[in-house]
Amino acid sequence: MSAPPGTADTAAAIREAARRIREQGDSAPQLARDPVNTPMINNWTEALGDADPRYPELAPPAMVQVWTMRGLHGRRPADDPLGAMTAVLDEAGYTSVVATDCDQSYARYLRPGERLSVRSRLTDVVGPKRTALGEGWFVTTVSTWSVGSGDDAEPVAEMMFRILKFRPPSPPEPAAAPRAVLRPVVNRDTEYFWAGMAAGELRVWRCGECGLLRHPPGPMCPRCSATHPEFLIASGRGEVYSYVVHHHPPVPGRELPFVVALVALEEGVRVLGELRDTDPAGVRVGLPVEIVFDRVDDELTLPAWRAR
Question: Is residue 8 within a helix (H) or strand (E), and if so which, with residue range?
Answer without folding.
Answer: helix 8-23
